[in-house]
Amino acid sequence: MTSPHRDRAGRPLVAVTGLGIVTSLGEGKEDNWAALTAGQSGVKRLSRFPVAGLKTTIAATVDFIKAEPFCAPALSQEMAMRAGAEAVGQAGIGAPGDFPGPLFIAVPPVEMEWPHRRALAEAGANGEDVTYATLLAGARTGKFRAWYELFLFGTVAENVARCFGTKGSPISLSTACSSGATSIQLGVEAIRRGETQAALCMGTDGSVHPESLIRFSLLSALSTQNDPPEGASKPFSKNRDGFVMGEGAAAVVLEDYDHALARGAKILGFVLGCGEKGDSFHRTRSSPDGAPAIAAIEGAIRDAGLSPDDIDYVNAHGTSTPENDKMEALGLASVLGERMKSVPISSNKSMVGHTLTAAGAVEAVASLMTIATGRIPPTINYNVPDPAIELDVVPNVARDANVRYVLSNSFGFGGQNTCLVFSGEPG
């Protein structure tokens, strides 16, 4: 009997055996990877709802999936189902509907949408009793039962867990823009602790609707460079003015390396390191000194048993906001030193927009595809370099490279910072 495979800290190695993805560029790894490496943009003018009076009229929406209009949970759930089916199918793990491990899923914050609020208001105007007490009493049996289930925070996770037959209570999490990465971190930690031999880790977000656009606009977070839509997201460029909202989902099947080997699974890569650091500086802004981001980056590299010199490519958070891009560049400069000028550092958000709670998972899939293919997706729309940010952003055109170790950054509102290190080899 061979000895168990362990990492440098004596923990089970965490292998990746399945990947799934849905973004504005299409459904599935094949279509998304072809578009990402071709430098295509999924950003378009919004047609889902009227945009008159809005400062931002563009987004990277998933329009090829029909879900209930103005309803983030419905679209988020459908995208999660499709990404999960691709990942679990590729992994070939367990019988259909009998996944042998837990579900960790990042979902957007859930609240009642405007069409449903309007329906309640109209019901009240028509003399119906729509007080909180009567709504609650009739939520499980009455006319509002579907709404009750739809807007319950854990509903998406419950339905996804039921579909794939995951084990134990599904974990819904929402750690802002680092959520997708956090879902993977939780799966890694569960396997390392020996609690499970497999985990289904996902992030999904279908939140493009009028209220979300207005809220982000009030924070001055969104790009208002609406024409042309595909040119708005320009991470690390001097003329960047905000992020572009995106929709998408991604799923990753993680396994104890020995478990995967025993069943003859194809190994797609490894999650070698996870780093996390909270930041209490501000509810939305990142700490300008970059200290929490630096700690998360250093933590991920240290957890992987590597040094900064080992990193071959950085899949950047790269939102295209003036402050966040500057902070991320500062953090990378602190960790990588002079290598920051030569290590390729690109942002998928230049093409798929910022998929919010799904972003860390979407970028994890892209990171693993980079390792598998030896091709780095570009940062598109990079036409006006920022002299204050000296990074090799793989401008506008994809690049072939020998990539062994990838650092993927996710930095969220409220100081949620999570970084992951991926590799094609066990160490």
TrEMBL record:
GO terms for cellular component: cytosol. Signal peptide: none annotated. Pfam families: ketoacyl-synt, Ketoacyl-synt_C. PROSITE patterns: KS3_1, KS3_2. Residues 11-424 form the Ketosynthase family 3 (KS3) domain. Belongs to the thiolase-like superfamily. Beta-ketoacyl-ACP synthases family. This is 3-oxoacyl-[acyl-carrier-protein] synthase II. The lineage of its organism: Bacteria, Pseudomonadati, Pseudomonadota, Alphaproteobacteria, Hyphomicrobiales.
